[in-house]
Specification:
With about 350 residues, the chain is of the alpha/beta class. It is built from 13 helices and five strands. Strands 3-2-4-1-5 form a five-stranded parallel beta sheet, sandwiched between helices. β2 (about 35-40), α2 (about 45-50) and β3 (about 55-60) form a beta-alpha-beta unit. The longest helix is centred in the middle third of the chain and has 22 residues, at about 165-185. The radius of gyration is 30 Å and the shape is elongated. Residues about 325-345 have low confidence and may be disordered.
Length: about 350
Amino acid sequence: MNTANPGRIVLLTTSHRVAPGLLSWPAWKALREADRVLCADDTHPQLPYLREAGVDVEVTAATAEELLAACEGDRTVVVVASGEGEPALTDGLARLAGSGRVSMPELELLPASYDLPGARLLDLVQVMDRIRAACPWSSRQTHEGLAKYAMEEAYELVEAIEDGDRDELREELGDVLLQVVFHARIAQEDAEAPFSIDDVAGGIVAKLIHRHPHVFGDATATTPEEVKEHWLRTKAQEKRRASVTEGIPLHQPALSLAAKLAARARTAGLDVELPQGDGIGYRLLTLAAGAEAEGVDPETSLRAAARAYRDAIREAEGVAPDEVSAGLTPHRDAEAHPEPDTVEE
């Protein structure tokens, strides 16, 4: 083997989350200037676009030794890597370099395309498609059957937030996101009114842009109060509801429901007396409405108090309190929460 001019090997990596053919300029330059371009995968999504651009790609799974031979005489070989990154080839090159018996060519790892923020969401959509088609359990699920899981995951997310556990928070956000993608995938199959995850995302994007004229339009807002005013005004124009109670989910926890109703009435400037009656329900309603008027989230406050009560029970039993709840105080937002209607449909 001629070792005077060992040449150059370029390992070209691409992201499957970016449309094929959208490569960086350094990548196109390396491809056009290479003496040979190799690819072991004849189904690689980049191949049709490379060939259309006039790049001669040889479909061959070259070994490390064969690559070194191809680089002799100061030649450049570009390897278009598969999704796995050619581990067998790179391991072989590493062994040759470690042997000390050969003069190694220059080795370069050249990313040809990069993921944009949010690109991994495409992976989630693809995985969900496959699971829906191939999993005996997932393929039979319906919106109605999954509804309880959405509620459970939302509660677990709230718990992770209140615990301050960052790892748990990341995981629970993923579980909530799964519910969204799962329901959207089921919705694609509806015979009368199908919609997809793109329709879901497109809808919320349009809503956010419309309700933020101070960001995407000519309106001005310099304080949270002005933002809230924009939001409420545009929402009122969109919904044109007959009652301020419309759109309030009645299946939410009772304290949250009571606080939400009180917030809607207060925001609308309605002076409505609380109904009076016998029983704990009416007393709780009064407490929830009073808490909301003071800027306190009664649901969060009660949950914090209940955790303290749980720890007191465990202490009486001689059981150590959970690490995450030891010394737990109400969440910092429990006593000064934002207006509940600020971020709502």
